[in-house]
Write a structure and sequence with these properties.
mainly alpha, about 0% strand
Length: about 100
């Protein structure tokens, strides 16, 4: 796992030498579409989840079940989880598109 960059570079050089034209015409546009489409879908889903989470927590705060501090912690943790999921998705797409 620590030598993944060298493995990617070797694979890229090998594939470009063997079938460079195929990669330029067939794979790259599909990979770019996948990356942009997945990114847009993730942004929409993350925004919807965060909004619903915030509204639900605000309603619970209004009813007095949790405090404002618990609300702040909950929204902060939700942001951290969404950010980690975004980074994981980005890394997965980078790895799969190479």
């Amino acid at each position: 796992m620590t030598n993944i960059l060298n493995a990617k570079l070797f694979a890229r050089l090998h594939l470009n030498g063997v079938s460079g034209r195929f990669l330029e015409t067939e794979v790259q546009p599909d990979a770019a579409r996948l990356v942009y489409g997945t990114g847009a879908l993730f942004q929409f889903t993350a925004a919807a989840i965060l909004k619903l989470h915030g509204l639900l927590c605000a309603d619970i705060v209004d009813s007095g079940i949790i405090s404002v501090g618990a609300f702040t912690m909950s929204v902060g943790l939700a942001l951290l989880i969404i950010n980690d999921a975004r980074n994981l998705t980005r890394r997965f797409l980078e790895f799969s598109s190479m």
